[in-house]
Amino acid sequence: MTTEPQGGVIMKIAIGMVVRNLLSASPLTEFLDNAEKYGHPIDRVIVAYSHQLAPEAAAVLQSRTKLSLIRLQEFGRAYLILKAIGVPYASLRELLFCPLIDTHGLIPYGFNRNQVLMEAMFTEADVLIFVDSDVLPSVLRRMPDGSVRPCEVDFVGAHLGGMAMGADITSSDYSGYNILPPARFDGMTELLWGLHKEAMAEFWQSSMATGGMLLQEGDAGKPTPTTKVLGGNLGLRMRAFPTLPPFFSPYYFFDRTPLLARGEDTLLGLAADQYHIKCVDIRTPIFHDTYGSYPAVPELLKDGAVRDRLYYACTGWIGRNVFSRWKAGHTASEFAQRDQQLSAGAKALCRYTKDRRFLRLPEIQSAAESWLPDMIRQYQRSREAWTEFTERWYGR
């Protein structure tokens, strides 16, 4: 199936998603319904999953469009394709095998997304649009009566509209409850500075009044240039490769426990800027059910699952920050003040929540720093393997 987003140019559009367990065809069916409603035929759905698959979910998706299911660590088809084009074994293994899956059941975010990206190349998609398993093709808006409601939007059309303006990467934020749940305690701002999230300070300070909710206020507005990319609301014109690097996010260990760094989408946005690839914010913040319990307001003090989500967000940001500092040419010593703020903020958050895990954040920061050489090696191996692949794929 094809679509004509601009000037009669026909495109094959794929929707991609990464997930631990594919147990339901939703929300992919909602995105397929939405695309059909607005006249955008979808050529293929690509899902990378690591653990469980419900056959009935796959059957529903197969009844709607072509379906590529990628079970991580069961990479027979991709292996044969890469071998056939001459990718060396070391690079082939780097691209397809992740030791954390078998040993700890974890998958770095960047590695996961790259499986979908390669399948989009193998199936000759022109446009790949990533969504996550907890988003929908609607935005939360405040109505004239003051209520908040989800409003369906032309999701695929918004991404294609950005591409019609010449962008090769299109993205936008989310509406819904932010990953920072409503809270009020002394030390909030220090914690955010320590986590390199200070831009969220004003929002978090007002979160008890707002519920920590992000809305789309007024009209969407025109797409604007950006370097901020979010993986669950992301369009890629495949012609941007091989100039664009792969997704990448490192992992590190604390107390013999693996932790996944966030930021595979952050690095993609920075790479687009570096290589002068046009990236725009399509001003379409789709609904994100962050805690899986909308419309209930997340309760940090009462709900252990909310505290879990915040804790692992913090460890993910720490890993991202350590790697990003190096990537930007900085040394750890340049951030001594932020490290002190992290320590003070972590103690304050522990006092507020009575959750002693947050006291570990400074130690986790130190562990991430000690793992930086390994993170760099992970990055270099990933880039080298990707180069081996793309040179052969696009040069065949």
Describe the protein in words:
There is one protein chain. The protein has 396 residues and is α/β, with parallel strands linked by helices. The chain has 15 helices and 18 strands. It has helices spanning 28-37, 55-62, 76-84, 89-96, 99-104, 109-122, 155-164, 188-194, 201-205, 207-210, 264-274, 304-327, 336-353, 361-370, 372-395, and strands spanning 3-6, 9-11, 13-19, 44-49, 66-71, 127-131, 135-136, 138-142, 148-152, 169-171, 174-177, 213-214, 224-225, 233-237, 251-254, 257-260, 279-281, 286-288. Strands 5-4-3-6-14-10-17-13 form an eight-stranded mixed sheet, with helices on both faces. Strands 7-18-11-12 form a four-stranded mixed sheet, with no helix packed on it. The chain has a two-stranded antiparallel ribbon with strand order 1-2. Helix 8 (188-194) crosses helix 13. The longest helix is centred in the last third of the chain and has 24 residues, at 304-327. The two termini are 25 Å apart.
Q: In total, how many beta strands? A: 18
The computed structural class is alpha/beta
Strand order of the biggest β-sheet: 5-4-3-6-14-10-17-13
- Mean pLDDT across all amino acids: 94
